[in-house]
Amino acid sequence: MNIMDHLPALVIAIPLLGAFLTPLISKINDKLRNIFVIIIAGLTCALVFLLANEVFTNGIQTYVFGGAYNSGDTVVRIFFEVDGLSAFMAIIGCILPLVAVIYSWAFMKEHTGLDKYYTLILLMTTGMLGMMLTGDLFNFFVFLEITSISSAALVAFYTDKGKAVAAGFKYIVISSIGALFVLLAIALFYGQYDALNMAVIANSMQYSFLDKIALVLLIAALGMKSGIVPMHMWLPDAYGRAPASVTLALIPTTLASLYGVLRVTFTIYGNNLITDNPLKQIGQIEIHLNVVLAIFLVGLALITIVVGVLMALKQTDLKRMISYAAVAEIGYMLLAVGAALSVLKTEVGSMALTGGIFHIINDALDVGLLFLVAGAIYYATKETSLNKLGGLARNMKYTTIFFLIGLLAVSGIPPMNGFASKLLIYESVYHVNPILSIVAILCSILMLAVFVKVFHSIFLGPKQPSFEKVKEVPKSMLIGMAIIAGIIIFFGLFPHVVVNNIVTPAVDALTNSGMYINAILGGGV
Amino acid sequence: MIEWNSFLKTFDTGSGLWNPLVWITVIVIALLLVYIVRSFGRKEYKEETEQTKPFLSGNPEGDKEKMHVKGSNLYWGFMESMKWSYDLLTKAHTGNVSDYVLWFIVIMGILFIFIVGVF
Questions:
Q1: Which whole number is the average pLDDT over A132-139?
Q2: Do A332 and A426 form a contact (C-beta atoms < 8 A)?
Q3: For chain B, how many helices (H) and strands (E)?
Q4: Is A457 at the interface with chain B, CB within 8 A?
Q5: Which of the pair, A186 or A71, is modelled with greater confidence?
């Protein structure tokens, strides 16, 4: 068996197998279990990188689960179809869980039920990687459910805290409702086209009345799971109440839903965004689907950025503050996608998409690092209130530096990674409408103000008598933060390398839906 | 495979550009300046004396916990001037899961009108 031929299946199989084995290994020894989980997460990462390398070098990779198709046969088959966008998302989806399990070694040490904890983290990783790699809509729904159930259980991991359990409950309610509407949309496709494969549906798309309804259901449901305002309210509850390591692993699950929005818009409805027959003609102006979606997404993006930043400024709880900042960051990605839709197939559109896609990975790293720092502060002080913390820079030097890196990155200050992607977004959005760019820059300045407030409240000021004995966090937590901080600095200094090698293939995959369709329909699979 | 010389290439965004060598030079110069400024400090200071106590216009230093400006005191003016928007936003964030679902229905409804109804 050549491993390279089965990479898409192995990326899912390894964490899934690991999830089932974790409780058994936990019976032997806790340390052995921790090592096992880190090895599984690391192996998954290695496989994802191998797969991504295959995709970036040789183009779209398809993998068939099921028998060979002979004309006239009825075969049940599921396709995995990995293009540049899937590979890009999978890179995010494997790095953060790996860091989360390294960080958890010390962070979760004092807790019981860790066999379930690690099992759920690996299940969540399986689910989100499945969402990113599958080419089958029903399969996407199944992985969405796996991700939602494991995430909800992890959000409610602190079962002794009522608010954590309530947050878990809210998460599962929201996720179930979202998944229900996704399933309904899939049923509408299946009823019309007798197919569940995304490429087949995209190729057959008629943009009928039912397709319009399916589009509404998919964008609304996946938009809610992505945390777009005003459907974001579950996000600060879930991110704020989950253990910091879980929050880090939750970020790519949220982004997996955003990936769903992109896949639906650009691939499934890709051929209908601009057609010969406009949806409406107002005088000389032709209204196409891309413009309708662009107006809607840009509107939601602006609300998301403004509300996210304003609410972040108001918070006095560190984790809730970072959660609202994460909401605002999602707005930036959406703004870029909306702007790109409005000027589709132009240089500006391509630049906007590059900025938006680049910002996905930057956001995951920046916000992820800030959550890890929040976890470190909680670990050391058992406190997250900005009104009680202070003077910690004297006791926690490394954590302070990591926070400073996260602060600069999330606020888009050079030379951190956030600046490179935000620069692309500002510049491209300016060409669409300068007001959009102005709002985005102003909110970025406010974001800096938010985190300067946090930095001052927690790390500066005189040494507080109540935190006199606070020490730096254990090494495994510092290693977790250092890995992400290192990637942030690397991406910040060498954005050219990142954009050319992993972002551009993702943008190409989005803008050429024909390639995705041909890989299945023209590839003889 | 990533080529080594690609690491030094300039990232061009159209009207902006970004070169890692420039940034590394800027960082090195900044660190050098910090080192120079720091070296101006007086090494002969004595700990636990008046020399290391904060000077607050001649007033005695208060309790450490009370001296620190807490998180909710920062940007008080901004929050006060934006009170109307904060009142609105706080009212919307009820923490009630049925309201969360309601917002989802509202957005779905607007999108429905947009995509299915108008266009």
A1: 96
A2: no
A3: 5, 2
A4: yes
A5: A186
Q: Which of A296, A314, A501 to mutate to test the interface with B (most CBs of B within 10 A)?
A: A314
Q: Pick left, alpha or beta for residue A82 (phi over 0 → left; psi -120 to 50 → alpha; otherwise beta).
A: beta
Q: How many CB atoms lie within 10 A of CB A506?
A: 29
Taking 60 as the threshold, does the pLDDT of residue A524 lie above it?
Answer: no
Q: Quick check: A449 contacting B, CB < 8 Å? A: yes
Tens of pLDDT, residues A191-205: 999 999 999 999 999
Task: Provide the whole-model pTM.
Answer: 0.94
Contact (CB<8Å) A310/B89: yes
| Mutate which: B3, B7, B93, B96, vs A, most A CBs within 10 A | B93
Q: Is B26 on the interface with A (CB under 8 A)?
A: yes
Amino acid A75: pLDDT? 67
pLDDT at A73 over 80: no
**Residue-level pLDDT at B102:** 96
- Neighbouring residues of A225: CB distance < 8 A, sequence distance ≥ 6: A144, A174, A175, A178, A254, A257, A260
Residue B56's pLDDT band (cuts 50, 70, 90): confident
Give how far Cα A52 sits from Cα of A60, A82, A490, Å: 10, 8, 19
Res B1: pLDDT? 62
Q: Does B100 touch chain A (CB under 8 A)?
A: yes
Q: Does B87 touch chain A (CB under 8 A)?
A: no
State whether B111 and A219 contact (CB < 8 Å). yes
* Angular region, A354: left φ>0, alpha ψ -120 to 50, beta rest: alpha
Judging contacts by C-beta atoms under 8 Å, the chain A residues touching residue B26 are 415
